[in-house]
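Entry for the shared binder. Reason: the reviewer on the internal report wants the predicted structure included alongside the sequence.
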Amino acid sequence: MKYTFEKAEKSTVKVTIKITEKEWNEAIDAAYEKSKGKYSLPGFRKGKVPKHLIESTYGKGVFYEDAINYAFPKYYGEFLDKETSVFPVGSPDLDIKDVSDKGITMEAIVPVKPEVKLGEYKGIKFTEKEYKVKSEDIDEELSRLQDRNARFVEVTDRAAKNGDTAVIDFSGSIDGVKFDGGTAEKQTIVLGSKTYIPGFEEQIVGMKIGEDRDITVKFPDDYGAKELAGKEAVFAIKLHELKKKELPELTDDFIKDATGTATIEEYRKEIEARFAKQNADRAERELEDEIVQKVTEGATMEIPDALIESQIDRMVEEMRYRLSYQGLKLEDYLKYADKTMESYRESFKEQAEKTVKSQLAIEQIITDEKIEATDADVEERIAEMAKAQGKEVPDVKKNLGARQLDYVKNEIVVKKLFDFLKSANVIEKA
């Protein structure tokens, strides 16, 4: 094998690989062994036809495609083993330039990690925000605790009002014709929650148990189901049950039962400490995001399309995963939103470019500043994990697989990176 390579446009490398007649024949032989079971000729059992007879019957190039599929990965891999400066970040785009029984020339455009030129990332002024815990925040958390421990009491002596939980049947029609999704029985609805289209819940308010009522509503013009958007519908409603929420009284006894803390005052202090930690973490994240944004803005690089497409792939799969938790398929979501996969991927492109640029800029700083996770760092982190889990260090180590260990190392590197960036820049408190 002989090869050459040279830089091409937009962080790609053009690799030209020429293999000899002998190497090419080895590839053809491998292709024959792989595919001979598909061929049969008079006088030979399937899979037993000699190679030269298949070639004379079907043409000299009958095995070329399979031979290329054998030869390119083999010799491209050998090229990468020798040229360690070439760091592919995507699949090569293969083009066959010359092929005959004497050999083959293969040319591949390989997307590679781009050269990153950093701007200023030291001595920059940043302001770290401070989020204070307000008394109202604590009051709201106490209200949420009451709400989580509320009980529902059946209502029989009055009409429905906002805040009630109603159990209803409904059947909707447009111009007298029922439509898909417009009918349900024993449906639970919280009045005033605005879960349903405007006007629906409001017209149930005032109904009494056992009452039937027809209500008229209009679907919003931007309603997801286009066949219903902007149309007026009549719903026949029957109210079966009403329940009201009763909140527990906020007392020391309630707090002790619900949380294990002795008094309201002690629990307020616990909430304040928890919120203060959350606020500090939030301020730190926002500062780190601002630093990354500033570093990224000053960096220049040519990002290969393959890296952008890979990031878009991850974003699409993340959305697919989130939708699955709602019982939805991405394809159904796209149909509902009247989007194609192509247009959906395009909508991610700008954010994908920013994400990739940030990652590359950060990786370059890590390289330039020689930031790494030392053995001592890893040992210290594992000890922290063991303490948090109430386990012995050897037990935690034993259960750490290669992927988990890589995650631990990456976590350490990221922390050391931001410690460095904060110390190398001027951080002022708001």
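Summary line for the report: The chain has a mean pLDDT of 94.
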